Amino acid sequence: MLIGKISRPKVKRLSPFLDRLVREPKWMFIHFFIHSVYTTVGQKIYANMGAILVGEDAKPVTEYKQHKKRPIYEGQQLAARRIAEQLYSGEVTPDTSREIHVMLSSKTGKVLTNPREDEANIDLLFNRPPYTIAIEIKTALPNKRQWADFKEHLLLWIAEFDTLQLRPIFALPYNPFHPKPYQWGMGEWVFDRASNPPQMLIGDEFWDYLGGHGSYEDILEIFDDVGKVSYDKVKSYLN
Question: How many domains does the chain have?
Fold first, then answer.
């Protein structure tokens, strides 16, 4: 099992976005304040920012709901779980082409009309010819066991869209270990980082993939500007 080999490195920062909004490190320890900031910013803001970067190529996420209603086969559900478990245990290495082939060729068994209810919603959906890109954005520090579940989400999207042209991506909005490489969990073992596009994007590579080179730095600059403008108001509020 690979899971036993994974250590828990020290996290350098909570969020480069919040760092720029909050500005004063001591404010990060004021529970009611930082909880309010996290609640306001939330995960949703990352999808909204991504849609702005993608621009007119972005599809309404509600379009996914139509695909989600499409039936998949029991064999595809089992195949997704099997691939995820094999990757999690280290039996196989991630391979986008092979995984797509397995998912689309596993149409066996019963037809499942609604296999997973509200799980695994797509946060960003857009065209990037020749592919349709579907992205799930998650917190930067997932629990260990969640990695296999996230992989299964992406595999089931392939079954639901039923096309060779879908490329699902798992994204983390920032790297809490920057400037060091991301060092948490099992992403490198369960997602194909060598494929085009990669199955997992982290921090600057995620934002630059959406909006082009330099997009990540531009976003940080915007958050920094907002933090400067709001600094006096926040200071007065906390005092």
Answer: 1
